[in-house]
Amino acid sequence: MARNCSNHSADSLVDTVEPSPWVVRFAALIPQSGEILDLACGGGRHSRLALGLGYRVVAADCNILGLEDLRKQKSLEIVEIDLETANPFVPGGILHGRIFTGIIVTNYLHRLILSNLIGALADDGVLIYETFSGGNERYGHPRNPDYLLRPGELLETARKRLQVIAYENGLIQEPRMAVVQRLCAVNSSPDGLATNPPYIAPL
Ligand SMILES: C[S@@+](CC[C@H](N)C(=O)[O-])C[C@H]1O[C@@H](n2cnc3c(N)ncnc32)[C@H](O)[C@@H]1O
Fold this sequence. Notes:
- The chain is α/β, with parallel strands linked by helices.
- It is about 15% helix and about 25% strand.
- It contains 5 helices and 7 strands.
- A 7-stranded mixed beta sheet has the order 3-2-1-4-5-7-6, sandwiched between helices.
- It is globular and about 40 Å long.
- The relative contact order is 0.18.
């Protein structure tokens, strides 16, 4: 995992190439019509999952070395970007104006772009987010509060603008003991969700 990027929120903790079960569970809710943004994608385990499901993917990270083997994938755009030196979603930013039908973020937090991230969701677009939460200090990195969600923070942030499909907050044991928050939310009005409810993947 990258060590030369500014945010070491969870570096070296994602040793697995297997996708997160949380992302696997909800990935199929993402409409096929557009592109998925895999933000702070690392080695691209979720980009790979999405490509395998037939999506077009934009994989963004400040360290793209782990994506070398994917360079020839026609459905993949690799964006080398430092998400923290400048907000990529504002005018002049590399992701400004881009709209995504799915956004996946795992094991990464940069609060200052959270709102912009939600703003980059297409109508009916799906946000899948999973990262470390306060309390994780007892179990390992990250311990820096800048990289740890506050209690309920992910839920409160999302529910202001999205319909939350699922949210969890607590201790996980796999791939190692950690405290996380994870969420799946849809950019849909409550009415839209009621008339056209998404399937929730079986547990
Ligand atoms: C723990 S890894 C998670 C990777 C991937 N999301 C996953 O779960 O497999 C954190 C990722 O955030 C990236 N990162 C850290 N600081 C960054 C920054 N300032 N801009 C862009 N990416 C950054 C790292 O390069 C690394 O790939």
